[in-house]
Amino acid sequence: MTFLWAFLVGGTICLIGQFLLDVVKLTPAHTMSSMVVAGAVLDGLGLYDPLIHFAGAGATVPITSFGNALVHGAMAEAEQHGLVGVITGIFEVTSAGISSAIVFGFFAAVLFRPKG
């Protein structure tokens, strides 16, 4: 049952993104930004963590979880370190994912040369 809920929740998030692209005619950059902001707002309202507990990877894999991670890290560090914690919390929680994207992107660019 866990896999079904992950599929349905993740699919719904992707469906919303596709709706923004096709019907609302947002650019891919605007769609991605909107999804990150939606994840951040849902976490700020305390609704994204219950969604993660309910759907697992269906809520953690889509781009909305990046917004969730930004707000979650900022709020946790702000409680301990105040205003400075807001800035450091954002980088602390998301640094591993961003760093790995940069490293793997570099290796992909070195190994696979584009044709054209």
TrEMBL record:
Q: What is this protein called?
A: Stage V sporulation protein AE
Q: Which NCBIfam families match?
A: spore_V_AE (TIGR02839)
Q: From the record, give the transmembrane residue ranges.
A: 51-71, 83-112
Organism in which the protein naturally occurs: Brevibacillus composti
**Gene name, Swiss-Prot/TrEMBL:** spoVAE
PANTHER family the UniProt entry points to:
STAGE V SPORULATION PROTEIN AC-RELATED, STAGE V SPORULATION PROTEIN AEB
Pfam families given for it?
Answer: SpoVAC_SpoVAEB
Recite the UniProt keywords alphabetically.
Answer: Membrane, Transmembrane, Transmembrane helix
- Asked if the record carries the keyword NADP, the reply is no
